[in-house]
Each structure stands twice: as structure tokens, then as C-alpha cells.
Amino acid sequence: MTDTPTQLFIGGAWADAADGATMPVDDPATGEIIAHVADAGAKDARLAEDAAVQAQEGWARTAPRARSEILRRAYEIILDRTDELAHLMTAEMGKPLAEARGEVAYAAEFFRWFSEEAVRIDGGAGILPDGRNRMLLSRRPVGPCLLITPWNFPLAMGTRKIGPAIAAGCTMILKPAPQTPLSSLALAEILKEAGLPDGVLNVVTTSRAGEVCEPLLRGGRIRKLSFTGSTAVGQLLLAQSAQAVVRTSMELGGNAPFIVFEDADLDKAVDGAMLAKMRNMGEACTAANRFFVHRSVAAEFGRRLSERMGALVVGPGTRDGVDVGPLIDRTGRAKVEALVADAVERGAQVLVGGRAPEGPGCFYPPTVLADVDPGSRLMGTEIFGPVAAILAFDDEDEVIRRANDTPWGLVGYVFTEGLDRALRVSERLEVGMVGLNTGLVSNPAAPFGGVKQSGLGREGGRVGIEEFLEYQYLAVPVS
Fold this sequence. Notes:
alpha/beta; Aldehyde Dehydrogenase, Chain A, domain 1; Aldehyde Dehydrogenase, Chain A, domain 2; seven-stranded mixed sheet; six-stranded mixed sheet; 22 strands; globular
């Protein structure tokens, strides 16, 4: 980790926190400290805000093609450094190297996608219905942005926000999660190398999020907040954004239903379940939480899923052959343990896993629970761990009602071979995304986001850049 920056990145320069504070970064596989990074306070936040505000006007005037080429160069640099970045991610958040390399490719693709969108920003023109005025519509950047990213996909969540902001002509302050600051600092270094002007991206690492973020949101100079994280924190940030009427986009929590009908191809369903549940050790907002399986196939589905889950190898992400790394920290593991214990006390049957191993690290085994009581705590919260909870159902209306019985609505998964049922059920699910006979929905070219308490707005796809643009309407009299 010695070559990775550990200082704040403000105005194109690396700097210690104003008060000299630092914070440790732990390896969740061992509990050992792998680095100390600058721990920003309120003064550092103001400096980053000054840099972003000062750079905004010039950056907004930069030619779209120039912005596009910076993103394209950064895309290529990221791919060139795949192994370096993958090892960095594995060290700070635990995912196996194979998954980390996959995230590097996924993260890079956001920069390639938005490099192409940067040159497609357009407006419109026409005569208004009364014939008196011409209407000219132009698009312009919303202004300086605060981007807050989570720890579970530390590189990809950064590029998913930074990419459209750069493409639209916005300057930024990036505040990464305190558990995984190193990936964001490495990304800042890459963008500087790619030619991003000073002050366009500023990275503020901190364990003092309230001290850093609240003044920025209430001050009026930050015009856009993009946040990925828990619903509870998102609600707090929305309240703080209201005073200055900051534009917001929120990618919040999920409680994804995974529905397997009696006519489903069980091989496809189990493959999909492994993707939807075990990506990132289950630490994903898109992770399948509640497995609703038709009673006629529930036992067989549980048997097959248990065999696949039980065959996964748990261990440090850097070790060859490991499929499942540690959870992010002991707090995360304790939460999973408590949820499983509650379900078992309520009568759930443990088909595989269910007990954390002894020794160092924050490991938890892939676990399948059957006959789960609908009142179990894990039915009403994000598990954020490798636990699949199976509940049997009898008819379509019942399962849709149960799937929608949650304040969240990010993603749902449906497995059936019937086209009519597939479309009907998908349309009735109260979610922003549906995986139909697949356990993976995320793609930089598709709009990512949810409904209800799962968030506001969309990231990725053609609409992703819209979150960072405003319309201006110009009325011109018809002579």
C-alpha cells in the first residue's frame, strides 16, 4: 500500500488534514491496520468547497470533447492497473481478488460510457404554440456536487458518480466511506494523470462525516448531492439538503425479493440465486434477501442452493481458490449473527452454515435457512451478508403481496418460464429494476435505482447524466 496516496486531494494537490488528524484503514480478513489516511475536518471541507466553486465556471466552459477524452484516458489507465487496484480493494474491504478484478472492469466501464455521453448533451428549439416566441432549450451543469460513496463497491460507486459529473461539466467533492478510502484516493491520482484540471475533483477522506458534510449541504454553494448508502443516512442528508434546496439523487437500501415459480428452470434459478445472493459476500443493496419459492419446488430448490453455498470456500480474498471473503467489520458480522439467531429461534431450519468460525477476521459462512417465519427480523431489513432465507408460497397474488410488503423497492428477481407470468409479475412488483431469469441487473448502460425508500433518481444509462444537468429556456420573439 506504500504507493497509494493517503492525503486529502484538494485543488489538484495532496495535503494533510488541517489539524493533522489521521484515521486507520483495516484489513477485515486479519483486523490489521494497512494504512493511515488523512482524517478531514470542517476546515478541510471548506477548502475543498472553495476549490470546487472556483473551478466550476472554467470547467463548465470546457468543450464536451475535451471532457470526453479525459474520461476515456482514465478508463484506459484503470484497465492498465487492474491488478494493482484489485489488490487495493481486497486489502481494504475483503472481496476475493477475482471479484475485485471484476469490479475494476465494471468501474472503468462507467468512465467509457460517460465519455461517450459527454458529447451527446443537446437541447432543442421550436416555435411555441401561440406563434409569438421561439423556444431555445440548452443544457448546463447543475454546479458543484457533493458525492458520497459506500464501502461495498469502493471503486465502481466512485466512477458511477464521477463519470457523469465530469461529462456534464460539474466540479465535485468526493467523500468516500471511512472503511475504504484508498480506492478513491487511487482514483483521484488516475484522473489527475488523465488530465483532469485542478479543483474539478476533490477527495475528502474523513471519519467525521457530519462535521464535513452538513455545512456543505446547508451553505448554498454545493448545488447537487449524490449519495449511495443506507436509507437512514439518506433521510438525514435529505433534511440537511432542504434548507439550501440542494438537488439530490439517492441510491438507498434494498430488501430484494427473489421469486421462484413452480414452472421455473431450477438450474437457472439456483445459478441466479448464487449471483443475486453471493455477489460481494451478500454486501450489496441488490442482494436477494427474501427467497419466495413455490411450495411444490421449495425443498428441491433449498437442497440445490445449499449444496452450491456449502461448496464455496471462505477465506482471505488474496488466497487462491477463495470464493467468499470477510464481511466489512465486526459490527457487520455481529448484525448477521443476530439476524440468523433470531430466525432460528423462530423455527427456521439451518440447511448449511449458520455459525461464524473462530479466529481472526470478520468471516461468516454462506448460510441457507428454510421454513423462515415471515416475522423474523431478517425479513424486514437488509441482511448485508451471505444468508439466504427461504419462504414457501402457494399462489401468485400471495407472493406479490408479500414481495411488496416492505418500505424498500430497489430490485426484484423473478424466475418463471411463462412469458405472460413473467411480464405480469414484473409489472406488479414495486421496484425500480427486475432481473427476469437472471441474478444480475447492474450494468453501466442501464438506469440503476429504486422506488419508495430505496431512493430518488437513477445512475448509469442514458439518464445518468441527466442528474447533473439543468435546462435553460430562452424565449425569442418571432419577428
